[in-house]
Amino acid sequence: MITMRNITxxxxxxxxxxxxxxxxDLEVREGEFLAIMGPSGSGKSTLMNILGCLDxxxxxTYLLGGEDVSQLTDDDQARIRGRxxxxxxxxxxxxxxxxxxxxxxxxxxxxxxxxxxRMRRARxxxxxxxxxxxxxxxxxxxxxxxxxxxxIARALVNEPNIILADEPTGALDTHTGEEILALFEELNEQGxxxxxxxxxxxxxxxxxxxxxxxxxxxxxxxxxxxxxxxxVGNPPLTTEEGGIPSRATTKGGAS
Amino acid sequence: MNLSESLLTALxxxxxxxxxxxxxxxxVIIGVAAVIALLSIGNGxxxxxxxxxxxxxxxxxxxxxxxxxxxxxxxxxxxxxxxxSDPSRVPAVADVAASVGxxxxxxxxxxxxxxxxxxxxxxxxxxNNLEEVAGGGLLTENDVDTRARVAVIGDGVAEDLFPDSYxxxxxxxxxxxxxxxxxxxxxxxxxxxxxxxxxxxxxxTAQARLVTNRTRQGEKPVSAILAQAANADVNEAALxxxxxxxxxxxxxxxxxxxxxxxxxxxxxxxxxxxxxGTLTAFLGAxxxxxxxxxxxGIMNIMLVSVTERTREIGIRKAVGxxxxxILTQFLLESVVLSLIGGIAGIILGWIIAxxxxxxxxxxxPLDVGTVVxxxxxxxxxxxxxxxxxxxxxxxxxxxxxxxxx
Lengths: 255, 405
Ligand SMILES: Nc1ncnc2c1ncn2[C@@H]1O[C@H](COP(=O)(O)OP(=O)(O)O)[C@@H](O)[C@H]1O
Ligand SMILES: [Mg+2]
Description:
Number of strands of chain B: 10
Strand order of the largest sheet of chain B: 2-3-8-5-7-6
Number of domains of chain B: 2
CATH class of chain A: Alpha Beta
Largest sheet of chain B: 6 strands, mixed, barrel
Order of helices and strands of chain A: EEEHEEHEHHHEHEHEEHH
Helix content of chain B: 40-55%
Number of strands of chain A: 10
Strand content of chain B: 15-25%
Radius of gyration of chain A: 18 Å
CATH superfamily of chain A: P-loop containing nucleotide triphosphate hydrolases
Bound molecules: adenosine-5'-diphosphate, magnesium ion
Oligomer: heterodimer
Strand content of chain A: 25-35%
Shape of chain B: elongated
Number of helices of chain B: 13
Number of helices of chain A: 9
Largest sheet of chain A: 6 strands, mixed
Distance between the termini of chain A: 35 Å
Radius of gyration of chain B: 33 Å
CATH topology of chain A: Rossmann fold
């Protein structure tokens, strides 16, 4: 479903050049639940933005569903974002002063659906994330977890093949984070490919596969079960890089 | 996304910040109100000047002595009137009247007033649109033929001399002789002629009793001849024919200057039209400048709005909005702002024009052309000054826009 070969991306800030991705390769299969971990500044968000067609790589190829999407025009990228990818952000990124139903219907408006169809599907998406009774609530009338659910409903409403989530639980408390995660698992069980950036080893443990990014490259990758074993059995590989916080060890030990 | 969706989105976002929308509109409201008010007043002034000019008659040509070329002598006589009344010589002229006037003290009983006494031909009233009387009748051909001592007096003169009685049938004294009042003119109120405070007597009587000056040849003069062109189209022909006949009558050599001058009502209307046209253009320019300022206000607020809403734009783009979706939304926002502002401005301008029109006693009509012009102008202002902010918004990169705090 996703094939990335030798992807590079650098940021120029005056004289300084930051090489955020340095020739990264990545393969994601249809229906996978993939967790991306790695220290802060390692290039995870940069990778995610390229995956979600919010940004283009400097070089390398990115095949999405067999199509090369590495060098598209702005508008072609927008079309892919609107129809094939759902994006969930750490900061929710909802429109201010806009009721939930309208938020969720937004991608459908740009996709050109009729008003009735948009409302019907937006309502269904909100029900799917458990917010069927909050359609008229505006972001400032919703809790953080509910806002993130609205964002997920918005990501879902176009029935995308992939949902990308950049630290979706980062702004939520542990319990709410758990619920959001359960929601992603549920969506994955329904067949949607889910890619989540996370610092939480529990999340990683529930993912089918974990990919560690370091200095703009894939450091290593393991399937979820192995990750769990590694976490329980061995000293964490990447503690000093911030990949697995120490909390994980104690918690893992207790289970 | 189609246009009506874009319009709804634009309206939504204007609704979500009503105060800002209203403040943005203010510039356009004031600009359009200025356009409407100033142009309406300009039109009102034009119309009232034209009315004044048209009130003195129709297709008139006024012939007077050319003071620059007559050594101080009057040059026109009743013989000229007779010559100009010959249709075979001046076919383009339908009617000719004449007058000769001087200032006199006029008395009646114990009352006295200083007025201009005009000796006129009997058709003078018709040619000059003065046929309406408040009482009695006008001078007749017989009055002129018999040098009758009768007078038609203006409304103001009647009030001065006969404050408590009906003037018709009473007598007034001019230059020691008494005249019977046969009619009182209806008040005219015109700013161009002073008929309200004039006294009219037969031209023959005036020449016999009141006129003291003479032409170079010693004849009794007339001060003005009024020729009425048959219609507006033959005005130029009438001017040429009159000049030809008068030069012939006066024996003016080929190379010599006219000893008379011609002023046609059409020329007067043209001149007035030029003046009022300049006035209207000037007022329009002032109004246009205020509309321009309003437009710059819109651009200013829209640019602020684009910056403020960077994140919103990022979100819209992240979920699939194309460049043109964002462009259309922001463009429509500024067009809707200026259009609503334009409509409010038309209403406000009309109110101002009406109040101002009343204050200076002038009809300030709101014509359709002005409304269409102002609406079109307001929309254009929204479009033109909305383009740059909208283009900026449309060009934002989604990740950068999302990162914006
Ligand atoms: N827009 C940007 N301009 C300049 N540098 C950037 C920008 N975005 C990211 N970077 C830099 O690129 C590197 C990778 O960033 P990012 O992908 O956000 O890492 P992560 O999400 O793993 O924390 C960092 O060094 C970061 O400072
Ligand atoms: Mg990041």
